[in-house]
Amino acid sequence: MTTPTPERADFVVVANRLPVDRAENGEWRRSPGGLVTALEPMMRRADGAWVGWPGQADLEVEPFEFEGTHLVPIVLSAEDVELYYEGFSNDTIWPLYHDVIAAPRYSRVWWESYVRVNQRFAEAAAEVAAEGATIWVQDYQLQLVPKMLRELRPDVTIGYFHHIPFPAYGLYSQLPWRRQVLEGLLGADVIGFQRVADAGNFARAVRRQLRYDTKASGISVPMGDGRTRIALAKAFPISIDAESYAELARSPEVQARAREIREGLGNPRKILLGVDRLDYTKGIRHRMKAFGELLTDHKVDASDVTLVQVASPSRERVVAYAQLRDEIELTVGRINGTFDTMGHTAIRYLHHGYPREEMVALFLAADVMLVTALRDGMNLVAKEYVASRIDNRGVLVLSEFAGAADELGSALLINPHDIVGLKDTIMRAIEMPGAEQGRRMRSLRRRVFEHDVEAWSQSFVAALDAARRRDRGPGPREVAPA
Ligand code: GDG
């Protein structure tokens, strides 16, 4: 049926975005995202293809080769971007799956666009996959693709990884299309989540909505002919390329830049740091409230302690994001207006994206890293801070509501809604003796280096290979770990 041709790939990634950005001069540049780094070894080893949107509306480009990967661009019209991406993905699913921190909006027109665009991704992946290939679908923009793919290509093995939380049933059940989304995901052989709790929430939704049996991580999915197959729904916590952060942190240029950053801030005794996409899930307002109160209470002084907040621009055309930006900028203005001195600022707020080297310099300059997410699938920034602290110093304050809290128990864990507790913990972090910092940081680093992104992708692909062997026998093109 599907004779392999040189254009057909044994390993196909399907993600909303291609791993490249188009520069103004039309050249393609590798995008800095973690997923690209995560999958790079896998793509190189297998005969890999990547299906995704190039990031600009109405951009029509033919498939092309980029650094050894076959890229298959999906065209999204300006209307698709508005309805499927900004609408259903980022204004329905994103707030609903992050525990309704912002109100999700339910629109039938958005849903119809989501179905159409998911079908387009599934068709492109089905087209490029070789006989018996492995296809790995990424994230909440593409939840219907696994089932669509299974219908188009019953010969392939399908994985899906969910980068954001999966909510408790009481919230999930709000979704008018709750059955279709569960059925879409269950098209996969392996459905990966960040936390054990996410996989549990998913299994519960499947039991309640579809009445399928679940046993340990296995879900019995009826195949329509009286037989059932087992879909595995399990936690595979994502990670980072820890060594590449340590390597940057060892570079003399980055270390010099870290010193320069401190000097630029007037050499405060302590620097607190937040690095987030400007998103309402990240708890940036809670962090600022706590810091503002510490200044008001005279627990800290702006000449002594500075909060650096990098808030990289994100989803600016979605109303909730534009509102959040206004609120945060108002808060920063108020706090700085009250507490800044001629020589020192209370909050250095930066609404930009920065190169990775600058991020690592910031991590090195920061005595305390504040991760106060109200809900977060994992939070890679927490792991990046830890990986960069080659000096075994620095304190990580980490929200229990970030997936990373399951692994990083040696951080100072906080409930960001409890402002009193958050203030106390920030003070504890500021005052923490070097020996305790070292004990905690060494333990955090051990975890992050042992469970790096390569371990993550290998364990996911190993689960997919096991699913294939169970259902179809060993494949000739198995993507085995190196
Ligand atoms: C989703 C889930 C999950 C940010 N600003 C700059 C910059 N970044 C980088 C960080 C980090 C990445 O972007 C953000 O990852 P996070 O995990 O912190 O958060 P989301 O973007 O919400 O990611 C999340 C993740 O998917 C992976 O599964 O952990 O829970 O929400 O790598 O460093 N990088 C550079 N300049 C910036 O200004 N270079």
Description:
The protein is built from 16 helices and 18 strands. It is of the alpha/beta class. The protein folds into two domains: 9-238 and 454-472, Glycogen Phosphorylase B (Rossmann fold), CATH 3.40.50.2000; 242-449, 3-Layer(aba) Sandwich (Rossmann fold), CATH 3.40.50. Strand 7, helix 4 (145-152) and strand 8 form a beta-alpha-beta unit. The longest helix is centred in the first third of the chain and has 21 residues, at 108-128. It is globular and about 70 Å long. GDP-alpha-D-glucose binds at residues 32, 34, 163-164, 238, 275, 277, 310, 312, 353-356, 359, 376-381, 384.
Topology (elements, then pairings):
Elements: E1 9-17, E2 20-22, E3 28-30, H1 34-45, E4 48-53, E5 64-66, E6 69-73, H2 78-97, H3 108-128, E7 129-138, H4 145-152, E8 157-161, H5 169-172, H6 178-185, E9 190-193, H7 196-210, E10 214-215, E11 218-222, E12 228-235, H8 242-250, H9 252-264, E13 270-277, H10 284-296, E14 305-312, H11 319-339, E15 347-350, H12 356-365, E16 368-371, H13 380-388, E17 395-399, E18 412-414, H14 419-431, H15 434-450, H16 453-472
Parallel strand pairs: 1-4, 1-7, 4-6, 7-8, 8-9, 9-12, 13-14, 13-16, 14-15, 16-17, 17-18
Antiparallel strand pairs: 2-3, 5-6, 10-11, 11-12
The protein binds GDP-alpha-D-glucose.
The site of GDP-alpha-D-glucose has 21 residues, from strand 13, strand 14, helix 12 and helix 13.
